[in-house]
Amino acid sequence: MASFLSKSFAHKGYAAFRPTYAAELYRTVLAYHEGFSDSRRSLSVDLGTGHGLVTRELSPHFHRVIGTDPSAGMVSQARELSPVTSYPNVEFHQFAAESLPFLKGPQSTYSPGGGSSRTNCAPSSRRSPSGRRPSGSSTSRPRPVSSGGRAKMTLGAMEEYTRTWSSFHQWQQRFPSAHRRGPYGDGEGDVIDRMMDAIREAESAFQVSEWKEKEVDVEWGSALILARRREE
Fold first, then answer.
1. How far apart are the C-alpha atoms of 64 and 42, rounded to whole Å?
2. Cβ contacts of residue 164 below 8 Å, gap of 6+?
3. 56-72: per-residue pLDDT in tens?
4. Which pLDDT tens digit goes with each residue over 121-149?
5. What is the dihedral of CA 82, 103, 111, 218, to 10 degrees?
């Protein structure tokens, strides 16, 4: 996303508050590619890796895992969160999805979903970054996953997490004079403040002075589009 490329985007905050994906999502993706020979599990490429969450989760299943992102800030966070002592087969590079000079030969591409445009690859077939299917490939219909992401967090943490969204960053650029309320701001409130006001108004349990300490379950669904080359 374009917001992630901005130097003013809070990459560290995004990495700190970004929830994890449900295990079901990874099981669905890996099950689709079951039956590959050991050599076909040699490489996975995570396009739009962000802070490397999916790259790290896939690392036990492949000999080598590469995460790429056009944002230098995201790549920096991914490397910081993926020490070589814990992830010796993981590496990160700053590249756009359309430019992968380190890859040679046919690739298998599949998408675990999520809030960004993320694609993962293993050597067997190829789906272009533009979304067009190459000749000889087969694609499944969009497959809903009951829980693409899930996290238990306080309302205060949820508020800070929404402030890492690229959509909010774009809103800030459009309305630069609208500042958040204290203690971290000096304004009359921004769109996130108004959203939290509406949430508190709708739920009586949140209408207390310590509302930021109230714990909530945050969950969102995902859909996968999986593709691989037809066996000759």
1. 6
2. 10, 13, 14, 17, 18
3. 999 998 889 999 988 88
4. 433 323 333 334 334 445 555 555 555 56
5. 20
